[in-house]
Each structure stands twice: as C-alpha cells, then as structure tokens.
C-alpha cells in the first residue's frame, strides 16, 4: 500500500464505477500535463539480499511503495509507449514473450557451435551496477526523443519525476522526506519499459558494431569472433567485479594546460611516470563543429627553416598539409624514442605533448589516438590562445587500422579493401585544423603518410590529397643520393602559399622567385632525361646551364644539414645566387622591375 493508503483491491471492487472515475481523472491529467501532488511521495523499503555484510547499503534492494492509482496511470502511458515505440530484439529483459532464460540458451548454443568449429569466440559480460538508480534524467528524455516519442508524452513522463520525494521505512520509524533527482522509480509500472528504451538507445552503436549483442535488462553480453571488437582486449577482465555505467555521452578526454611537456599513451593516460593530470575540462574527442563563417583564412607564414618549404611551398598558420614519405616510417618504440630524445635535446619538450600508440598497442585504440591529440590541441589553441602544430604519424597505419576494424566487422570493402567511408573518416581528422575568428590560437596540421611501394595513387595519400591543402613529397631517389631533406619540389604543393607571402609578410620577390625556381628545375629534369638518351655532346649551351642549375639546386638549395636552418631571407638570397647562373633573358617568370632590384646584386632585406 502506498502513502495514500488506497489498496489496489479498492479499484478492483468498485468495478465499472472505478473505470468511469479513473477515465475522468486520467483525462484531466492528460490535458493539464500534471498529476496530483499526493502521487509525488513514496516510501522506500530496503530488502536485504541475504548476502555479505548486513550493514552494507549496497546489499539491500530498495522497493518503493507508491500510489496504486498512479500505477494505473503509468500502465496507461506504458501501453501507449509500447504501441508508439519498439525495442531491439536483442533485449530479453522486461519484454513480453521473451525471457532471460531464452538468451542464456542462445549464448550456450553459440559457444557450442564455435567449439565444434574450433573457432575463436570472445565474450564480454558487462554488469551495469545500480543502473536503475543511476540513470540521469536527461538521458531518459534523450532516449525518448531518439525513439520519436511525441512531446506530449515526454512532458507527462517528466511530470511524474518532478518534485518527487521519498522516505525510508525502518523497523522503528520512517525517515524525513528527501528529494530524488536521479534514476528511475523503483516499483513503478512504467520504469521497466523506460529502462528498456534507454538501454536500447545507449547501446545502439554497440549493437551496430558488434556481431552479437544481447541485453538482459541491465546486463550486457558482447560477442565477437575477433578481439578488435573489444576496445583493449578481454585479458584481465573479471566479469564478477567489473562494472560499467552508461552516461549517454560520447567518449571524452580530460584536457589541461599541464599536459604540455607530458607523454601519454594512445588512450590519453600518462606513461612518463608523472602525476595524473588534473583536468580543467572534459571534451568530446570528435571535436566541436566550426562554423565555416567563423573560420579565418590562413595568411601568416610559418618559417620552418627548410628552404624548399619556406620558398617554394610556404605553410600558412592554420593550414593542413601532409608529408608524403616514400620510406616506411612506422611508429615503433625506436621511432617514439627518437622523437622524445630529439625534443629533450633541443629543449622543446616542455612545449610538446606526445600521444603514443605503438605497434603492440590495440588496433582499435589507434582509431581514437589522433582524435584525442586533436582535442587537446583544440583546447590549447582556442581556450589557451596558443599556436599549435599537430604532427600525426603515421596516418597510413591509421588507415590500415581502420581497414582492419572494418574487415573484422565484415563491412563491404572499398578500393584495396579500405572501407568506403575512409574519405569521410579522414576528413573528420584533417578538417580540425584552422583558425577561428576572435580566438588568438591556431592549429596547423602536418600528417605524415608512407606510400606503399612509393605509390601516390594509393587510397590513403590519394584521399588525403583531396582533403588537405597541398602536400610535401619526400623522394626516395634524393634520399639515396644523401640529399637531406629529400624533398622533391615538383610533386609538392601548398595551396595556401599565395596568401601568406609577399611584401609585408616575407618579401616582394618571393612569389616570382618560387615560380622561376619551379620552371628552371622542371626544365632541368627534362634536359637530364634527354641527356640520358642523346648524350651530353648533343646538348646546347642553354641546356648545359639548366644541368648546372639542376645539380647546384639539389646540392645547395634542397640539401641542408639536419640541424641547419635558414631564415626566409637567407633562402631567397640563396635562390637568387642560383638563378644568376642564367642570363636575365632566360628568367621569364620574374618581372623586369624585380630583376632590376635583385638580379644584379645581393638581395636586400
């Protein structure tokens, strides 16, 4: 009997009179969107589970004594909800015609079948501890909206949870009333189906990604024939003491300014023996959508100290430009140690945040590592006002991980086995570079890709080239000739270069010098190919000038020491030194006014 002291037998005994009276009452509630205030109070009776310590609060099951009249009203709403919505067939709890015993039987059958076929089967058992009492109310309303429940019924259900209070009944006395602001009503006629709707929605992604997902009310079983279906494997998981709480939110990562100078694994956990991060915020790893009208066009050049980049492929602050590498560059432990040691030797470690997903780390973790790194970069750039350079290496390994996960899920493959959505997936990473109006910081992104068999038409570099704003091409032949950095300028491109150079930003001759270097180098390559066919004796004096330029360009301009940096003015001066190999008449890409100023003497700043 509930707090109103009206037993259910009263309504049963009144017969048709009760039906007429209740119909009028329920119509009034439906029109007013408000139930009687007396129904908002309940009494909680703790029932001991007969296990473990009698003084432990978690060893009791709470049953609420509520108004029986309210339960009849809940039955009406539940009946209409079941007609308007549907719950996945994977849910065996609280569903008419289904039972948890049936689900247990199916799991055992599945295990026997895989055992007979001698195949691997991976199962994860998840117990949502105290799930009834811990479901946030906003998750309930979100799940109802996702199931397209009419706003009228959501309002009626919200009213059932507004200003509710309860007291606890002990063997001696009832406690004072206190408010309940989280969880479902225990003992409610509507709660089981509400819980099924919530579970159906919060596990929707899992149901789509995992071959088999079975729901037993608040218990979940994930079944997969591959370990990639489980985030970090099942090793070490104790299904008796492992609990999971669904919050209805996407994966978030803690961010803080203190992350500078720290090293993390691919999941964002510190691995440098330092203290845990005290987060200043928790941010969605997928990032926030940037209004295109709020983006600021990149117009500030970043000086790298590398002549081939600064002069011929200038990078603007906020640009996304990949490095296409012909040499394999998998991030193994040796590579990770190289980056770490280089940062420490140059004294820049305190300004660096490293996220490492190594070859022996979970494949599925490789999918979220760049997103966690970019979320951290967004916080440092847009909230802390810093200019952030994000280097992602190796995106080819990321694409391979995406293909592996896609194959494990038995998705329809696209070109060379990669998933058809890889273009969209890569875009969600690359498009997070840029600048925002009114924010001081920026994110410049340099993804590094390795081209299998030096094939630039491979899906990963091919799709990357469509999304990003150019590319820097690393050439194997230049590398074999000991030219460092081995950047081949002909297939390289920076689409935002024109907006970041010129008078007032670099120097007025910058664009013309770049165009002339490209033209002369391309002609020099053609002459070199012709020489291999007809011999040097058949070449004209003009052709020999181009060969001389080609040799000096690669040895003096492209090549520079590993720690040899040149500012933009030094690089432009060096370019003019090379261009003076030719008479003025052959420098067709440079206007006469610029030649008058720079050709006959050393270029001034």
Automatic annotation (TrEMBL):
The source's superkingdom equals: Eukaryota
| UniProt KW Transport keyword | yes
Which GO biological process entries does UniProt record here?
A: vacuolar acidification
**UniProt key word Transit peptide:** no
Q: Which InterPro entries match?
A: ATP-synt_VA_C, ATPase_a/bsu_AS, ATPase_F1/V1/A1_a/bsu_nucl-bd, DNA/RNA_pol_sf, P-loop_NTPase, RT_dom, V-ATPase_su_B/beta
Q: Which UniProt keywords apply?
A: Hydrogen ion transport, Ion transport, Transport
**Protein family (similarity comment):** Belongs to the ATPase alpha/beta chains family.
Protein name (Swiss-Prot/TrEMBL): V-type proton ATPase subunit B 2
Species assigned in the record: Triticum urartu (Red wild einkorn)
């Amino acid at each position: 009997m509930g707090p109103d002291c009206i037993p259910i037998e009263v309504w049963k005994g009144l017969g048709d009179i009760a039906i007429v009276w209740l119909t009028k009452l329920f119509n009034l509630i439906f029109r007013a969107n408000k139930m009687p205030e007396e129904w908002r109070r309940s009494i909680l009776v703790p029932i001991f589970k007969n296990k473990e310590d009698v003084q432990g609060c978690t060893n009791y099951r709470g049953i609420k004594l509520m108004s029986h009249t309210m339960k009849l009203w809940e039955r009406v709403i539940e009946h209409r909800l079941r007609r308007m919505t549907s719950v996945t067939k994977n849910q065996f709890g609280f569903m008419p015609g289904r039972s948890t015993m049936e689900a247990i039987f199916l799991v055992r059958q599945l295990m026997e079948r895989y055992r007979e076929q001698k195949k691997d089967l991976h199962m994860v058992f998840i117990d949502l501890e105290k799930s009834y009492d811990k479901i946030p109310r906003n998750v309930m309303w979100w799940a109802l909206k996702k199931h397209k429940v009419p706003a009228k019924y959501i309002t009626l259900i919200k009213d059932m949870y507004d200003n509710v209070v309860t007291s606890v009944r002990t063997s001696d006395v009832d406690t004072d009333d206190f408010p309940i602001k989280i969880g479902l009503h225990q003992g409610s006629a509507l709660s089981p189906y509400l819980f099924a709707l919530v579970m159906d929605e919060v596990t929707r992604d899992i149901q789509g990604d995992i071959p088999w997902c079975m729901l037993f009310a608040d218990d979940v079983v994930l079944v997969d024939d591959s370990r990639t279906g489980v985030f970090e494997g099942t090793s070490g998981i104790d299904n008796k003491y492992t609990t999971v709480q669904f919050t209805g939110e996407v994966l978030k990562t803690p961010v803080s300014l203190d992350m500078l100078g720290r090293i993390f694994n691919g999941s964002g956990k510190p691995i440098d023996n330092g203290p845990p991060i005290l987060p200043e915020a928790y941010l969605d790893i997928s990032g926030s959508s940037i209004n295109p009208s709020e983006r600021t066009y990149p117009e500030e050049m970043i000086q790298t100290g590398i002549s081939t980049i600064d002069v011929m492929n200038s990078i603007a602050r906020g640009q996304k430009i990949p490095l296409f590498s012909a040499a394999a560059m998998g991030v193994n432990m040796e590579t990770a140690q190289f980056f770490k040691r280089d940062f420490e030797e140059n004294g820049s470690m305190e300004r660096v945040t490293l996220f490492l997903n190594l070859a022996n780390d979970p494949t599925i973790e490789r999918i979220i590592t760049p997103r966690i790194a970019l979320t951290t970069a967004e916080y440092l750039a847009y909230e802390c006002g810093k200019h952030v350079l994000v280097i992602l290496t190796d995106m080819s390994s990321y694409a391979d991980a995406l293909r592996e996960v896609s194959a494990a899920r038995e998705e329809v493959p696209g070109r060379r086995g990669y998933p058809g959505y890889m273009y969209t997936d890569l875009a969600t990473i690359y498009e997070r570079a840029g600048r925002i109006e009114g924010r001081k910081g920026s994110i410049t992104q340099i993804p590094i890709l390795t081209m299998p068999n030096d094939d630039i038409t491979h899906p990963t570099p091919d799709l990357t080239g469509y999304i990003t704003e150019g590319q820097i091409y690393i050439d194997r032949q230049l590398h074999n000739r000991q030219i460092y950095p081995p950047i081949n300028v002909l297939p390289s491109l920076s689409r935002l270069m024109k907006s970041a150079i010129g008078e007032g930003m670099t120097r007025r001759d910058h664009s013309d010098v770049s165009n002339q270097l490209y033209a002369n180098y391309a002609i020099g390559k053609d002459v070199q190919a012709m020489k291999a066919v007809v011999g040097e004796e058949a070449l004209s004096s003009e052709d020999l000038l181009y060969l001389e330029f080609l040799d000096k360009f690669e040895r003096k301009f492209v090549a520079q020491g590993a720690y040899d940096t040149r500012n933009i003015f030094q690089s432009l001066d060096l370019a003019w030194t090379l261009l003076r190999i030719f008479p003025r008449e052959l420098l067709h890409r440079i206007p006469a006014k610029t030649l008058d100023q720079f050709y006959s003497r050393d270029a001034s700043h």
